[in-house]
Amino acid sequence: MKKLFLSTFVFCLLLSGNAFANKPVYIELICAPDTEWEGMASESKKIWFPSFKPKMLIHMDLDKMKVVKIGYSKNEDEIRDVSIPIEEKFVDGNNEYRFIKSGSLNENLNVFNIITILSSKWMDGLFVIQYQLKSEVTNFIMNEMKNDTVSEFDRAMKVYTKKSGEFIGYTGGSSTSECKGVRKYKN
Predict the structure, then answer these.
(1) What pTM was estimated for this model as a whole?
(2) Comparing C-alpha atoms, which of 127, 123, 142, 73 is closest to residue 97?
(3) Of 176, 172, 157, which Cα lies nearest the Cα of 42?
(4) What is the rounded CA–CA span in Å between residue 160 and residue 147?
(5) Which domain holds residue 145?
(6) Within a domain: residue 17?
């Protein structure tokens, strides 16, 4: 009986070690969103011929849990080096990677894109929601955030809503259920 238990235990350890060894350490994605919406996603529209539109170019180092390169362009060479922290969750048998990409539309309006990559063995998808915030709101959110993660952004937005009484929803977004160019590197 002890031998059976011991052999089962060793077998389970080998399986779990093998599963960890198969996890990618670096992912390169080329994603052309095929759906977009404005407002709170009540009306989405199909993007026809997404391969002719700008694409999201994302390189993620999963050992360091950082996005190390990112771009949004028709030209796949237009990608720049960055260091953006990634949060990872395991959802319904898939890995979910979330991070923030921000910028300015003008001196009074800032953009925060919450980017989610859903990754499985068979396919990878992209989901982006966008917040457009006035400078005063941006300053409050940035001062409230303890780090540059999506969970901290969400927490800071809740604090802002509680203090100001003003709910700020996202202004639009885009998605694709399957990224066309995916390279996963393992140790």
Answers:
(1) 0.82
(2) 127
(3) 172
(4) 16
(5) 25-185
(6) no
Q: How does DSSP classify residue 120?
A: -
Cβ-proximal residues to 104 (8 Å cutoff; 6+ apart), any chain: 110, 111
Provide the mean pLDDT of the chain: 84
Question: What does the block give as tokens for 134?
Answer: 């006035």
Q: What is the pLDDT of residues 124-169, one digit of tens each?
A: 999 999 999 999 999 999 999 999 999 999 999 999 999 999 999 8
18 within domain boundaries:
no
**Would 14 be classed as within a structural domain?**
no
159, exposed or middle or buried, with CB in 10 Å at 0-12, 13-18, 19+?
Answer: middle
Task: For residue 92, give the amino acid letter.
Answer: D
**Distance in angstroms (rounded) separating the CA atoms of residues 139 and 3:** 63
Q: How many domains does the chain contain in total?
A: 1
For residue 144, tell me if it sits in a domain: yes
Decide: residue 92, CB within 10 A, 0-12 exposed, 13-18 middle, 19+ buried: exposed
Q: Apex CA 44: angle with CA 39 and CA 47, to 5°?
A: 120
The half-sphere exposure of 73 on its side-chain side, counting CA atoms within 13 A, is 9
Q: What are phi and psi of 18, to 5 degrees?
A: -65, -40
